[in-house]
Batch of 2 targets.
Target 1
Amino acid sequence: MRHTLLALAAIATLAVGTAQAETASYVIDPTHTFVTFEIGHMGTSTNRGRFDKKEGTAQLDVAGKTGKVDLTIDATSLSTGTAAFNKHLMSADFFNVEQFPTIKFNADKFVFNGDKVSEINGTLTLLGKTNPVTLKASNFNCYQSPMLKREVCGGDFDTTIQRSQWGMTWGANYGFPDAVHLIVQVEAVKQ
């Protein structure tokens, strides 16, 4: 009887350890992660910008079809390639970085197609307001990095938001659209 109880305890311990081992933790690699935005300009061209500083963590359980991501973007790192445009976008007319220096994306619902993430549902906090956002994956993969000697997972994700939902309405009367295309290229390193 004692041997049976010990065997059951060992199996239970192993099962718990295996279940916990399926969820892997990752740190977002800022050198392979880019958050960019695109918005139409008077119906002729597209204005683009990106945020150069970002950090975050992710958890992924492919077998359990679950995941979680917490991404913080430094809004003061906005870059369009033009200093005057950067200054205007960082002003209270748009990102108001003095009052809201960070942008956050948090998600705990991952949708899978087989063993690949196809969609991430979460919230975007911008200008002090939080609204739901769904990022669609156009690429997703995990691989063993030959340089880092660790697993790396990542992909290309995008969505289109209506900036007015966050109170960013400047330029609407000049013909700037409400729709903003967000593109998130992300890679995260397993810890």
Target 2
Amino acid sequence: MATETPVCNFGWPAPDFSLTGTDGQTHTLTDIAGPNGTLVMFICNHCPFVLAVLDRIIRDARDLQDLGVGVVAICSNDATSHPADSFENMQKMAVEKGFPFPYLHDADQTVARAFDAACTPDFFGFNADLKLQYRGRLDASRNTTGPADLRRDLYEAMKLVAETGQGPSDQIPSMGCSIKWKSET
């Protein structure tokens, strides 16, 4: 079932985190933060919404890094119920796709809960002061890749954030598969 993200809570401060990446290193929000903004993405290996736009996520991440925006992806899904999202499979995907950003494992799901992540993909765009300015979609693609000429909503929003510190007032929610939460036992 597709889930949409809530509207952007402008000015909300980015929660700190310290997570292990597929590169074996520990990464924190401070490590990731760029001089002109920071993009925190919740993605996973199995979601058709993520897979449909993964090449575009990688493209936009590279282009945003060129603008001084730090970029990170986090997988918070329960790997017990969704083995495709295991740390080992995350490592394989990061290498196979040549991720230009750290891909972090939120095994205990505390970071996803701190961010109130709703789905994959879920994009959180922060300004240089780590205040939320964008919580919208990558583009108009859904669980299939849209046409090549779609407006790059995420890129355009984060470019504006990098240039002005402010995100666009009109934002269209991201849509994707719900976060696969661990069962409460």
